[in-house]
Amino acid sequence: MPNTDEYIGVVLSDVARLLRTEFDRRVRRLGITRAQWLVLTRLHRRPGASHSELAEMMEVEKATAGRMIDRLVANGWVERRTQPGDRRVKRVYLTREAERVHKRIWRVAEATVDSALAELSPPESKQLMALLQRIKKTLVSAGDPSPSDAATAGRKPALRAMRRLNGRSAP
């Protein structure tokens, strides 16, 4: 069994967890939870998302997303609007106050990442980002449904690349 400290999946997971933990520590004083921040971020990127769309983006159940939205409405950070033409669909939008909160917390997020990357040179940081974006693109395309076996065969290079990253030779 390989040393898990050298397994890229474990290292990536650990780095992501440590970044979340440090971010949580830094924003605690602002009175917002990570879950609330994620809703604000999703709505900043996709204003007018429906409850269902938000639940899907956040990978939570619709009821969970609804409760989060309820709390954000109570805080005055989001508002629900009925969709024209279909009163059953509620669209969710950030308020001006939420936009201000989002900007403040985004600065905290940037500072958290800057601290984490402090030991890297600017070219190393740029290279890390480029490599992570390539990995993300590979994983996103591997998850795309494909009707042909040719597309499935195209996933094999991605698996070989992941094995190389983990220090194992590809078959």
Return the string of H and E elements: HHEHHEEHHHH
Q: What is the averaged pLDDT score?
A: 84
Strand content: 5-15%
Instruction: Tell me the structural class.
Output: mainly alpha
Widest sheet: strand ordering: 1-3-2
* Number of E strands: 3
Distance between the termini: 17 Å
Radius of gyration: 20 Å
Shape from CA axes?
globular
Task: Count the DSSP helices.
Answer: 8
Question: How is the quaternary structure best described?
Answer: single chain
Q: State the major sheet.
A: 3 strands, antiparallel
**Helix content range:** 55-70%
**Which spans have pLDDT < 50 for at least 5 consecutive residues?**
149-155
Textual characterization of the structure:
With 171 residues, the chain is mainly alpha-helical. It has 8 helices and 3 strands, in the order H-H-E-H-H-E-E-H-H-H-H. The protein has a 3-stranded antiparallel β-sheet with strand order 1-3-2. Strand 2 and strand 3 (86-94) form a beta hairpin. The chain is globular. Residues 149-155 have low confidence and may be disordered.
